Amino acid sequence: MKKLSDKILIILFVLFIGGFGMAFFILPDNDFSEEENRYLQTFPDFGIDELINGDFTENMNSYYADQFPWRNGLVGIKGVCETIALKGENNGVLLGKGGQLAVRLFDAYKDRHTVVEDTDYFFSENILRAIDAVKKFEQNCDIPFTVMIPPRTVDVAKSAFLYPDELSERLQGLLDENLSDSASYLNISRILTDLYDSGEYVYYRTDHHWTTKGAYVAYSEIMKKWGMEDLVIDESEFKKETVTDFYGTTWSRAGYKFISPDSLEIWTLPDDDLYVTTVYDSKNTVDDKGNTVTEKVSVKSFTSFYNREYLLKKDKYSVFLDGTHAEMTVTYEGNREGEREKILIAKDSFANPVVTFLARHFDIVVVNLASGMCDLTAYAQEYDCDRILVLYNLENLVENDNLANIK
Amino acid sequence: MVFSSLIFLFAFLPLTLAVYFAVPFRFRNIALFVVSLIFYGWGEPLYIIVMIFSIVTAYAFGFPIGKYRDVNKKKARFFLCLSLILNLAMLAFFKYYNFFAENLSLLPFLEGKISTIDEISFTLFGKNYTTDFSLPVGISFYTFQIMSYSIDLYRNDASLQKNFISFGTYVTLFPQLVAGPIVRYKDIDDQLSERKESVEKFASGVRRFCCGLGKKILLGDAASALYEYFKSADGFEGSVIGAWMIMICFTFHIYFDFSGYSDMAIGLGRMFGFEFVENFNYPYISKSITEFWRRWHISLSTWFKEYVYIPLGGNRRGWAIQLRNIAIVWFLTGFWHGAGWNYIIWGVYFGAVLILEKTFLLKLYDRLPVAVCHIWTLFLIGIGWIIFAFTDMSSGIDIIGKLFGIGATSFASRTALYQILRALPLILVCAVGSTPYPRKLLSRFVVKYKWTSWAASAGAVMILIVCTAYLADSTFSPFLYFIF
What we know:
The structure holds two protein chains of two kinds. By secondary structure, chain A is an alpha/beta fold.
């Protein structure tokens, strides 16, 4: 009896390690992982140099790990195990009521040399520098200027978690305290939290962004701030297209495969086709004199605001304005009654769905603050803008110093 | 390569087993030697030269030592010293050179005269290469193994190994190459030429390996993640509770990581028919530090006892000599763990506690309730781990202060309490897992019920699957596009 159980154990062991090993060799390699949104390591270059400096073996390790069979399924098993172990979170993502997920651990930026990874704390000095930059910009700016800092999911959906709101409150408090006297600051955190608590679907459960509804709330608040409350288009006027199988970035990081997907809405109006969105990517090159020149490469134009190809992929949020680009413009090509104001939006990806609402009233120039495009005065002059809106979410505020560099 | 990697588990190991069991016995050592070199070279493609140099010198000096040991002790001793010096020179250079360079240049008359080494350049086939000057993996372990051969041979505890492959296999044997247990030559001499692989041994090896893998990945790494969290949180907001968690989590992390690795080594050894010595014997149930060091990293303590403490005279030459010997051994033990002052202090700290225990503390413990001795010993061990964990000693002292509220900004933050709450199941499992009770319970069941051996096998396979999931997850790194 004992002997038999030994034999079966050995067979299972050998089958398991050998089976996965064989599957690795038989199954074709993948170039891209949709779940992780990154390119995977393919078979590394081999040569004496690579062998001696250790690159070959190191790349082999990543190659093996990246191309390992049934990787997504295994990640899911870990998610289940962590849940059974009552850990309440996995890979720094909280699991809350109703399948609400939220990233808890971020990379806290202090300065160019210091970033503390995977922490729920933040460096106040970095936040204060950003606040100072906003205040200084406000003083020197001669056109209307507004700053909105959307909260993170962990701040909005705090009622869904056991995780204490202590640090959320501390971070939000730092902003409120130091920006309350600033005319440009538009605080939206409380409004979103209240809406979330009353059961409104303002933030995704599986992604770190706000929903189209959340973006609509932001749009209404911005219009209110600008004294254009009357122009706000009522929610009921939009036709809503819904995609029901949206799994966002938080879900990918969490590995909780048992969570049900989000639904993503596109709110359209009959005249959508009269809008044109143009997106640019840029590349920095160094010219003969050693100056850095930013060159626009790959320009793409399409009608309305959406690239619906993304609805068929995993990365569905990129349906808004074709995802992340260095610069974009959105203009109305229909019958223009009178002059439309032009606004400059310096932003991260939270702004993308908001732009689809604001574009109904303004011509829009968008620059990606998240990729370090910080000279707003120059952009506003270049494009002859009438207003500036900064829309930069709290996570980015904690994780980099781009907002502190605006000028 | 490390055991807890996908490429080891699912490429290296199955191929190695296939090759090993496909060839007849007389080729099995050479098969092990070759795969072990690949195993080592995978992580250290260059420093493998250092290891091979050490192996060749000790092997070559074995001949004169063996020749003269019975006829001319003096000559034998000369060759022994030469062999040991050459081996220790490699260790001293690669592990300790920068430590000495840094500290000696602090002396006023040597200021700026000794420079540290950051990288090594060399020419190979007419091409120049540069590599970082770093510690070759496992050098502390294999140097000690090699030395044990020369000494055992000199002492007539082992016979001359004429076969280079067998000797090379002894040193490089991949299960214990990079992290022990430190196998003494005389313990394994016979097994090199004669050992029996069997179904029972292989199966028990598999169980042991899976158990070790689980200890490392599911408990050790999880405790490590908690430790890292509390350490990083302490940088922002130092609480008393946080400091205690740093100590507790590191205590569990290092035990489950290291003993898990030893279990995997012993298990792998059994698959190939070897029996290695045990390296851990439930160290955290100790009632004194004296007992702790009989249960923790046994192969290292044995090595120091046998090759340093006893040759120095041990405890047979009077009280003063014994104290000196303890001091030397514990200074060396500390220094062996790393080229840093904190490791030296860590060793000296245990040396001091051991001397105190020998003088009067052990007698005092006898009169105290057992629970008090347990807790007190664990506390001393924990303080030791803080000294060990923080290479920057001022941070270590800072954490020790915070244990008692010195320098702490609060007793506990709500975030820290939340973190403790979610860590609680893990810490309980670690605490129970540090005692012999689960093992005892299992053995009792095995005698009573036949299905237990099936359950143990099923458990081993389950652990293997779960660990594979954790390994796959750890390489899974979602790329959040929106930041760019």
